[in-house]
């Protein structure tokens, strides 16, 4: 028997009064209505209708709930456009073609309209239920950013982040209850912070002003001193070389094994907002340092695994690329990483010791790939007015792509 579709309906700030007659009928005629308490309260009482709030935890609980009501007519209520940082994404993953969507005008569209900002020159960042540090990746002089706020505390948190990056002059508009009779707008500079009560439902429109220096680029090879580290850091020139071969791409997952300061995983994540990375580091203090670096560079989604490879790699999701920056001589590690990659997956290994170099030479002879020796020299004072070349420790780099059809 074909199961009835599930309809997700977007509700704007105008609530029930802002819905068309046909949409209202869909909600009233449903056997089951799902939604947050605020949305459920907007719908007039209907005798015999089963109304349920979103379960917690959401994903696991929602799958069970949808299975329970699968043979009934179900409507799910969402804010604005369900597919703009909304429940629509989760429902689509669970229901596939059974899901129908009736969106309202999103708060993003309304905010762009109020600010007169074109979509092509505006970045949208959601902080709903997320770490505010995620905003840091998007900060650059003259950027226009719309922030979907978590609650009334978000404006102050965002102001602190902007000021801490040298963007204290940035202008922030708080656009409250967009599309409703209670719509409001207030503005302040980041350095001053917000004043008065903030509306719980709002979008922040930020015009970034100031200069944070050279650590806002998305190009690989950020300055070494931009990272907190204890010397266990893949240096910028070698890092840029490694990332060029790891080839970050949307949706790709990286294992950064022996992560040190986490610089390779962090730059992988900065390449695109849908990338993912797992940093594996056995030293607890370094793991804590990686977390701080990830937050500073706007990628708090970096997952940390504290443990020693290869044992720490057990049960990790399959990667698209792997970087081994330290500990490559651990027994079985290279074979474990090669086996974990799918066809087309990329492996890059760095070594500075004779023992690691011997291992990489043997891997190159057996499996092919590319073997490179990276030697970098920097100008340094020799005394008085004279300068000369100061060589950094040479790095042997083995990069390898797993053969086979990626499909």
Word description of this protein:
It is a single chain. This protein has a seven-stranded mixed beta sheet, with helices on both faces. Strands 3-2-4-1-5 form a five-stranded parallel beta sheet, with helices on both faces. Strands 6-7-10-8-9 form a five-stranded mixed beta sheet, with helices on one face. 27% of the residues lie in helices and 24% in strands. The protein is of the alpha/beta class. The chain folds into three domains: 100 residues, Tetrapyrrole methylase, N-terminal domain (Cobalt-precorrin-4 Transmethylase, domain 1, 3-Layer(aba) Sandwich), CATH 3.40.1010; 106 residues, 2-Layer Sandwich (Methyltransferase, Cobalt-precorrin-4 Transmethylase, Domain 2); 185 residues, Vaccinia Virus protein VP39 (Rossmann fold, 3-Layer(aba) Sandwich), CATH 3.40.50. The longest helix is centred in the C-terminal third of the chain and has 14 residues.
